[in-house]
Amino acid sequence: MRSVLAALDFDECARPVLGTAIALAGLLDASAVALHVCEPGVASPKELADAAGVQLHEVSGTPIEQIVAAAREPEIAALVLGTRGAPGGPQPAGHTAIEVITQLAKPVAVAPPHAQPREQFARLLVPLEGTSESSRALDDTISLAHRRQLKIVVLHVHSPATVPAFSNHEPHATQAWDQEFLARHLTAPHDRVKLLRHLGAPAEEVAAIADEATADLLVLAWSQDLAQGRGQVVSETLARSSIPVLLLPVLDRHRPSKRSEAAAQ
Fold it and tell me: The whole model's pTM is what?
């Protein structure tokens, strides 16, 4: 059976990470399992895992290497890990999280320490930039959410250059644009999908709108590249989001090793 792997430390993130893994397993029709990389002087989260009825595997070694190796096993459908820091204020993703999400070509959910995950997800916020590559990366997750009757809020952030000229004056034209956008980028039915369109910078808008939309999971497609300002939306969202963020890799034809790994899922 497929599993969602929760990478647990004995810190503020352990409970949100485990809760997110359990809820994500429900979405993906998988089971939840946990991994703890033992370090000298650091307590084990075994009691937490036992209380949730989740099997905990404890290993020794370098955390990044052990987490990536475990997550690459064919039966692992997704990984959940935490951000750095304590509750309150921005939570920039730490070194371990950054290294893992850029190395692993599988879905990875990142849970902030102040997240309050539900036993099951009810509402997803899915930013869509409007490219075919990102839409394909998101498609399976959106379809699964629809089949499980979750509410799906799709967000598209316009720049001043891309706002339709009729957007404030012609309601019928605006509705037609919205319907055409969803038809072009979603294969799932649209009966439980709401489209929000905002004007601004995506890196600033996404986390704030997740709170306004009362979403309990934020789903982002991304290129796994944070170099030279790329991935700004991902970096800012991970730092500011109060809910778990599920990152779905956009497969890159120039990176065959990652494509092969994703195909092995």
Answer: 0.87
Q: Give me the domains of the chain, ranges plus CATH numbers.
A: 3-111 (3.40.50.620), 123-263 (3.40.50.620)
Query: What b/e string do you get for 75-106 counting C-beta neighbours within 10 Å, with b at 16 or more?
Result: ebbbbbbbbbbeeeeebebeebbbbbbbbbbb
- Contacting residues for 102 by C-beta, under 8 A, at least 6 apart: 224, 225, 226
Is 146 or 89 the better-scoring residue by pLDDT? 146
Contact 27, 59 (CB under 8 A): no
Angle at 141 between CA 137 and CA 142, to 5 degrees: 100
Do 14 and 8 meet the contact criterion of CB atoms below 8 Å apart?
Answer: yes
E strands, 74-150, are 76-82, 108-111, 123-127
Output DSSP code: residue 215. Answer: -
According to DSSP, residue 83 is labeled -
pLDDT tens figures, 118-158? 889 999 999 998 788 889 999 999 999 999 999 999 999 98
Q: Smallest Cα–Cα separation from 51: which of 71, 26, 22?
A: 22
Predicted pLDDT at 130: 78
